[in-house]
């Protein structure tokens, strides 16, 4: 009887060990990079992967959330089962996100959406991309589709916001679409542009059309996007005013359609309505011309006071709108989008005049 019991116990022990081995095999995934093999637990994916970078604070860049299941089982080749190796394998609004330092195309990545609201953060935490370009933070790197090679500036790079921050015969090269919303890198200004084999017009950040990207750079202008400035997001507002200035500096552009673009050059003084000590409502008008019969647009929005200004104010919120009127006051349409506030100085804050600096981003005529 005892030999029979021992034999039965041995069978149970063998079966339990075999089941444990099988379960471990289901959890661990082998990922290879060249000749090095690493064991990756699906529940503990690399936290340095550039994913979901759209939530950024004004003062800091938060840790990236964990991205699970970047690498699946790969029984045959390095890239088998992986989402992507390069950006070309992802959608137009996506990029191939990889862990920090993963510049090789042999390393598997995951197609993540490119963030679109990097302008909402002022954080400057330089990151060197695998394209040898220094980005001001992880969000702008992801927006440009770049994998981060290492933290800090790339060797020899100098960050800049404006051209006058660079040396002689240099300009501040910014990635496409960054414009006044982020930093660039000082680069030698081209002195001549080769004639492109095919027309390649671009829309400059000054909302002027250029024959190609090189021509825009020769004119010290970053590129907003490929193609001419006739898209719905090529509407904008730019405004600076000190009430002791002889000529207020203001500009508003509305793209009604690719063939109907309205520009407003004449600006009234802006008015301030303080809502206690918590906020101020600002209103400014833009006129198409000096003629009394000219159309006009009115911008109104509310800023929180104090202690800091919001980077972006979206229309549609209480106290915020941009409307377009005919000369006799008939509303022609509402604008939608975001206004970026760079500076607002109150008259009663120890200053002789009130000043306001704003930039428009992705404005368009509402339906």
Search tags:
single chain, 367 residues, mainly beta, Wheat Germ Agglutinin (Isolectin 2), domain 1, three-stranded antiparallel β-sheet, 3 helices, 24 strands, 10% helix
Helix and strand layout, with pairings?
Elements: H1 2-27, E1 28-33, E2 36-41, E3 94-97, E4 110-113, E5 127-129, E6 134-135, H2 138-143, E7 148-151, E8 159-160, E9 170-173, E10 184-188, E11 202-204, E12 209-210, H3 213-218, E13 223-226, E14 236-242, E15 249-257, E16 260-264, E17 266-267, E18 271-275, E19 279-287, E20 296-304, E21 312-314, E22 321-325, E23 331-345, E24 355-365
Antiparallel strand pairs: 1-2, 3-4, 5-6, 5-7, 8-10, 9-10, 11-12, 11-13, 14-15, 14-24, 15-16, 17-19, 18-19, 19-20, 20-22, 21-23, 22-23, 23-24
Annotation, overall tally of beta strands = 24
**Range of helix content:** 10-25%
* String of helices and strands: HEEEEEEHEEEEEEHEEEEEEEEEEEE
Indicate the overall shape: globular
Summary, kept brief:
This protein is mostly beta strands. Helix content is 10%, strand content 35%.
């Amino acid at each position: 009887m005892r030999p029979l019991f021992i034999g039965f116990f041995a069978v149970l022990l063998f079966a339990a060990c075999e089941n444990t081995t099988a379960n471990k095999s289901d959890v661990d995934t082998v990922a290879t990079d060249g000749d090095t093999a690493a064991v990756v637990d699906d529940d503990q994916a690399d936290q340095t992967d550039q994913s979901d970078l759209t939530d950024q604070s004004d003062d800091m860049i938060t840790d990236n959330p964990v991205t699970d299941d970047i690498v699946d089982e790969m029984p045959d080749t390095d890239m088998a089962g992986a989402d992507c190796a390069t950006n070309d394998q992802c959608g137009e609004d996506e990029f191939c996100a990889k862990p920090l330092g993963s510049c090789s195309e042999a390393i598997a990545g995951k197609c993540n959406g490119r963030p679109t609201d990097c302008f909402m953060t002022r954080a400057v935490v330089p990151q060197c991309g695998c394209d040898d370009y220094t980005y001001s933070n992880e969000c702008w790197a992801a927006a440009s589709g770049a994998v981060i090679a290492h933290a800090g500036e790339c060797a020899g790079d100098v960050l800049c916001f404006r051209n006058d921050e660079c040396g002689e015969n240099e300009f501040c090269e910014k990635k496409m679409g960054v414009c006044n919303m982020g930093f660039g890198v000082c680069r030698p200004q081209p002195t001549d542009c080769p004639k492109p084999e095919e027309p390649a017009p671009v829309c400059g950040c000054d909302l002027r059309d250029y024959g190609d990207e090189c021509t825009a750079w020769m004119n010290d202008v970053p590129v907003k996007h490929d193609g001419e400035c006739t898209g719905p997001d090529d509407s904008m507002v730019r405004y600076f005013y000190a009430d002791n200035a002889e000529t207020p500096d203001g500009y508003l552009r509305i793209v009604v359609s690719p063939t109907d673009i309205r520009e407003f050059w004449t600006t009234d003084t802006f008015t301030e309505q303080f809502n206690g000590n918590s906020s101020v409502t600002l209103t400014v008008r833009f006129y198409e011309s000096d003629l009394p019969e000219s159309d006009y647009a009115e911008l109104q929005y509310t800023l929180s006071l104090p202690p800091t200004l919001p980077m972006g104010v979206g229309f549609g919120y209480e106290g915020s709108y941009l409307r377009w009127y005919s000369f006799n006051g008939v509303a022609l349409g509402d604008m939608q989008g975001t206004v970026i506030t760079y500076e607002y100085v109150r008259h009663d804050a120890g200053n002789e005049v009130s000043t306001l600096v704003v930039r428009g981003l992705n404005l368009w005529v509402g339906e």
